[in-house]
Batch of 4 targets.
Target 1
Amino acid sequence: MSLNETVSAERTHIGFFGMRNAGKSSLVNAVTNQDVSVVSAVKGTTTDPVAKAMELLPIGPVLITDTPGIDDEGELGSKRVERAKKILAGTDVAVLVCDAGAPLSGADKEMVQYLTSRDIPYIIARTKADLLSEIPGNKENEIYVSNVTGYGIEELKNTIGALAKNAAKEKYVVADLIPKGGTVMLVIPVDSSAPKGRLILPQQQVLRELLDFHIKAVCCQPEEIKSALASLTSPPDLVITDSQAFARVSADVPESVALTSFSILFARYKGDISLLAKGAKALKNIKDGDKILISEGCTHHRQCEDIGTVKIPKMIEKYTGAKPEYAFTSGGGFPDNLGEYALVVHCGACMLTEREMKRRLALARAAGVPIVNYGVLIAEITGILDRSLSPLPECK
């Protein structure tokens, strides 16, 4: 996968925040060396977040977002501020943009407290340094820059890169579970819900990671699993299936062969698999009229047998014998207050950053609301949750 093809969830998310007219948009353009944002002397020119996926040296593939001013006013302005805060929740590195000729405002100081409390790496960029009679020396977490002369821009980029590198940790979807030279079987249904001519993101990412680590991959459809296993001279180290095929695949894969799903692997990769496994056990407590939130991290065209709005509710009702009520969210939408829900069911989060998914898990934990993802829920309903978690060291 080339840098230009890197999905947004796997890019370093860099957010530019600050007061209106602090020079955020001009700084974004200077850092990217592109006209990403519209620039104007009028306060509040940026009314909606503007995101640009690109390669930024020395960091690599990034998603840079210019946000509305955190001091925007009025009813509409407060909504813009809330949108900026939602961007902040999924940000890996924050750039707080402040006018070099003015002290930090109350809103700036609140932003610093927010970033610090949530352990989000940040740098304060003091813009319009060219208007100062003398440019002070940089302090810790603070750099003077000029969007006009280019002063300090390279240093700012290098600092952002260093913050991103320090914040990043080596992690894998599956490669750390398989010995080098091992074999993994991928069970990938090709049915009416499968996108035409391509694999879905979790399948792509798993397959590419296996290739990167020189682990052999054998791909088949659910109805081919027996013949695919028979064609191997020795059993695979792991079988990974689409969660919706769990029942059939688990019946055809011997108990001696480790089995899990793409969704469970992504639950481990992006969040807290132990918390989600506990959430699955809450299914048995669902009663008539309980509210269940079903949330997806992406927006897509929903089909007649959509997994989130159709299949998952049917599975829950068949398993529990109850008739709960459902609420649905997708993309960036996710309520901050989960207190009204008896259960949250989330997708595999392949299109969300790890930070954003962990924020959602933290909201559920703080509200005392059990949360589970699609794959873990389906494994519980199928009766193979323990088996599907057994390959994961976190669950032993």
Target 2
Amino acid sequence: MRVVIQRVKSASVDVPAEGYRAENGPGLLVLAAFADGDTGQDLDWTARKICALRIFDDENGVMNLSVKDVGGEIMCVSQFTLFASTVKGNRPSYIKAAKPEISMPLYESFCSILEEHLGKPVAKGIFGADMKVSLLNDGPVTIIIDSKIKE
């Protein structure tokens, strides 16, 4: 599992074809991709890490608080392109990303686990849809986590 976490003032996801819109902020925008072999342990470890990351400023302007500490919100959007391989040629390969029948249930489960650890609902995109994601970065602060290398 691979995620990109961005600290945001606000974020939104629109799916015009479905008439769908979700928004949140301040808090985090999490872009999530899943690979074959990802397990519940990967989902739980990553969700715990995201909710505990001390990347929000305390009263002294030091990044010392988590999204939970500041009462922030989380939006999670599936993005299989995080597993792009650009080793050969100029057209990325997505062979490392799990197929939709595997990644869709992982995404739904991951969002539920995030909600459990955050203690409130998580805004979501629509899996597999053509989404328009907007955000107002805060910092900017962007963190990449891969559950297989715990980094």
Target 3
Amino acid sequence: MHVHKKGFWMRKAQTWSLDAMVATGMFIIVIMSFFYIIQLTSETSKADELLREGEDIQDILISSKPEESLSIIVGRIVDENKLNDLAKEDYENLKKKLGVRGDFCIHFEDDEGNIIYINESTKRAGIGSSRVYIGGIACS
């Protein structure tokens, strides 16, 4: 029996290359799945971080102590002088003071969800980034 026939070696080579292609394809699918899962986890982390920053800003701005420098609401009353001082603050400087990395907008709404303007004459809706919109109105 002669094993060195041309047909015998061709079938072996074809089988090996098909196995290699299937293994390579499976490897690529596993790698892509791994990166997809990491990306989903990262997006969840970003959402959690933004939520945490929002809560931190709220804690800083609402205080029971009137001597807190950045608190604009003491108890249930808005200190208009502190609100105006905060509105005059440079946005990037305010981000540093609040310890925030993301964009934000501090705004007020009435019981019906209507925006209460920080400055009625200039129609300034809030304090923060002009890239943030509240109900279709730019923050500042």
Target 4
Amino acid sequence: MKSPAFWKQALIVFLATLIGYAVVFHWIEHRRRTNGPWQVTFTEVAGAPIIVVNQPALRLTNITVVFPDAPTQTNLPRTVAFEHGRPAPFDLPFGKCIFADAIFLPGTATCEIFGHEIQLLPRTLTIDGAERPWRSGEKIFLTNTASATMRSH
């Protein structure tokens, strides 16, 4: 027969493990979400669809990508925050998200919009496979045809 001291020690070890797990889990969750997600607003200006990219923790604001030759959409503006993992591809107000990694935010989001591949990475923006440095307030104009630098899938 087991002694009462054994059950007391087992209970203490179990409770210490449970508390340690909860503390570590909440610390990792805080670190994972602390920078917040990419925020992309889909809207239109003067009849041209645009996306406006923001990521406050990285001090990236109002990076605008304009699609002057593309058809306009309805039900705009709409903001999408890439903060939850979900199976890709999924529809966006215009285009599709073909890859999203939201494990440690802001993560990575790759979208196909009007024939262009736009990838949001913390270190750089890529459009059709070409890297561009992030510049807050920048306006980027893309024609309705993807550039020759776009990688084939």
